[in-house]
């Protein structure tokens, strides 16, 4: 709320990415690879950690504030950009510390979130490795 694209004033998301072709932006929040995604075992599933749910809510709050302040931010910016149903990304934690049941619980949860993409660091590195490998061929 109140922060410009030049990173001045107010709170803002970790990164704002702009698609060069559409000028639309995406919001990216990054936690650490060591951030726990899941909490304790609960019946036949797992709870979500407070760090994870806090990060999701933080991201939703950033998007909401950015959308509410879109015209003020745009009028104070030298950069042309669009805010058409912005993609939001959370990069957090790792699959490496999860067992099969935990991975299934996490997958079920994130696939049912609306308009939020959640990636773990190991998934992000795997995607980057895939792209680099394909570019070398």
Notes on the protein architecture:
With 137 residues, the protein is α/β, with parallel strands linked by helices. It contains four helices and six strands. The strands form two sheets. The protein has a four-stranded mixed beta sheet with strand order 1-2-5-6. The chain has a two-stranded antiparallel sheet with strand order 3-4. The longest helix has 19 residues. The protein is globular and about 50 Å long. The relative contact order is 0.18. The mean pLDDT is 86.
Short description:
By secondary structure, the chain is of the alpha/beta class. The chain has 4 helices and 6 strands, in the order ββββααβαβα.
Write out key terms for the chains shown:
137 residues, 39% helix, two-stranded antiparallel ribbon, 4 helices, 4-stranded mixed β-sheet, alpha/beta
Q: Count the DSSP helices.
A: 4
> What structural class do you assign from the helix and strand content?
alpha/beta
Largest sheet geometry? 4 strands, mixed
Q: How do the strands line up in the largest sheet?
A: 1-2-5-6
Total strands: 6
Gross geometry: globular
Stretches where pLDDT is under 50 for at least 5 consecutive residues are none
Spell out the helices and strands N to C. EEEEHHEHEH
